[in-house]
User: Fold this.
Amino acid sequence: MRRKFIVPIFIFFLLLNGCTKAAPKVIHNNSTSNKIPVLGSIQYVDKIQKIAQKTGDRSALSVIMVDVDKNGNELDNNESTNIVRFHKLVSSLIYKIGYVDMQTHYFRNQLNRAPKTLKGLIKLNKTLPINRRWILLNIRYSGYHIQGVDGEYNLKFVSYDDYCEAVYNKKGVLLNEKNDPINMGTYNYAAGIPKINAHVKFDMDPYLLWGNTLNSPQKGKYEINSGVNLAYINYKKHAASVYIYRKNLFGMQQGKVQ
Assistant:
């Protein structure tokens, strides 16, 4: 019995060994196939547009959210042509979706970019062409960002294209979701939407409903507007000193800081 099985088993192993040697070796290289194109690049815009066509605009925006979470550092260079394309891409999707939900609203904080200090902004502006410099806003347009102790001295800037905001306190520190979720500057989706009241619909209304951050102590239209009214009352008490403070810094109350 044993001898009868020796030859067939021997032949089977020879055939198996031959197949193993003859089979082509497959090399899997995922380093390039799964690599995300640079945010805002032509390749990236093409990728997002294809997703939008296939599964919808909201789905495409969700992909952007994931990509920014992974590679948000690519947005730090606000002079790149990729960044300009990226801003326009996000705005176009927001406009097509037609509304801003809570998740999308808070996502704007991951998109906003600004120098970390007032000195940094002034230094940056000196290197930029006049038409691309950050713009200092008048107190009249800074009501939501001058609340609390010494809030009247806060300085609000917007980027040349209106997408990004920067608010600095009296110490020249950039306000954000960690150190001041009430007065912080935010990203404006409507900057790339040439429609009347787009800023109200896509930026202001969501803010009045949900505040600047998930953990913000100030939410709801009534509470926010009450805080702004108190801020203006406080500002009027210190208007003269605020004027001098701004004049000493820039020699002006608003405009492109040089």
Summary: The two ends are 98 Å apart (CA to CA).
